Amino acid sequence: MRSLDLLSPKQLHALAACCIAVLLTACGSAPMRAPEASTPTPAPTDVRSDAATEHGSEVAIFALDMIGTGYRFGGKNPEAGFDCSGMVSYIFNRAAGLRLSGSAADMARQGRQIDKSNLRPGDLVFFNTLNRPFSHVGIYIGDGRFVHAPSGNGKVHISRMDNPYFAPRFEMARAYFN
User: Hey, which residues are catalytic here?
Assistant: First the structure.
């Protein structure tokens, strides 16, 4: 403490003030920044009832049961074989009691259009596979996959939405349950 005795009271006050300033600075925090404007989370654009979700799931499960069924142009039942619209019509009627009839193009005029990002099991996906709009239809089952009856393979099977053949031919998605 002898070295402090050599300091004048004025110098002691100055030294104490410097020590306090250093301590306060060390304990301080970085200046607060203004909060950045956050992007609001968009509201869901496709709100569906529990019943709609249940019907869609039933359609998707029923579609999975049809895998391996033979293809037949104009076919409307598993015994004779299916074409794409015949398969959809049969499944929607049996799984959900909803009558969809006609060609894929006819089905594309029913239900309500939805964004591809809002696809849920049981929704229909439409493609241009014959150089005409809505020439093919399948049932979305989730995880970027759909069940359909393509003529080339000869059997009902699952394909991916990002498949190199189907991805560029995708035209629209539609929901039939609210």
Answer: 84, 136, 148
